[in-house]
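Appendix B. Chain record.
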Amino acid sequence: MTESELLGWLALTLVPGLGPVKINELRVELGEPPAISACSDNRLIAAGLNENQIQAFRQPNEQSIKSTLDWLDAPDHYLVPITDPAYPPMLREIGGPPQLLFAKGDTSILHSLQLAIVGSRNPTNNGYETAYSFSKHLAVQGLTITSGLALGIDAASHLGCLDAKGKTIAVTGNGLDRVYPRKHHQLAHRIAEQGLLISEYLPGTKPLARHFPQRNRIIAGLSLGTLVVEAGTQSGSLITAHRALEQNREVFAVPGSIHSPLARGCHQLIKQGTAKLIESAQDILEELVTPAANAQLEIRLSDDAPGTTREHSDSSTHQSVLDAMSFDPVSVDTLAQRTGMEVAALSSILLILELENKISAEGGGYYVRNSQT
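Structure tokens predicted for this chain:
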């Protein structure tokens, strides 16, 4: 991107009241930012800008421009406009896609096949463990896990993916020069090292409440589908689910206790027929891994899975995992202790055994050996 293009994009983004839809309309009518800058005031007025917006465009906030350029000068900090080949193609398809993405980390992940996992900021222990376990399993299979860096289910989803040595994307509702919530500073650092942080907001932007519904459309738009794990009927996670539906993407929900308020949002989605009831990671893979997706995604059930080796994928190793199980539920961590395997490798084998109907997932990261085995 040339300097004039960069400055043109930033100037457009700083214009008050000029959102992604209007910026896209200007681009269609007038051309890319350098061409828009060259237009006369009368031409800009005819295109729908008022005099205050034109003045803000001609004289953008110098401090905002400088702080953004300073942020972009740091290693692994990027600006990805919608015209850039690095821009995620699935996100480009939604209504009102962000015109700019600020990114920190590995931008190649933007082109990976993704599953969004969202849910309550105050989940039950079982809900947290379910999100963590699903994320870990699906990351081992090659899916990128996308979420919003929030407390609760979002954090569990990012952590499960990171612990499986997979790729995860965190979409924020603020500028990437700050971390929100603050307690996730270390988590954000891990994501930037192993995955990607993105935002449509310039550095310096505070995490205002109105930003998060906008953030949710990006989470849904990046992903093949959205999985909801524990959500009340007023949860912001349902906004993400509805955005996914509007974008013609899959929506999944994990059922819970009929007595739990945190299950009601998921049950509502299922009863309405807008979400598919999910009991195992395989349920999601069967829905998402279509022939078209297979052309891009290699389902790594052996030595290609993060943290696995060929000796872990042979039949004797599978049998040793079965031998370490009983017919009562047992956790992945307990199995890892009994077998001496890495959790990522073990998760891959557990998925194979589940596909072969030798074990069943009990939820919350627990498995049980089927009676016929």
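Further analysis of this model is presented in Appendix C.
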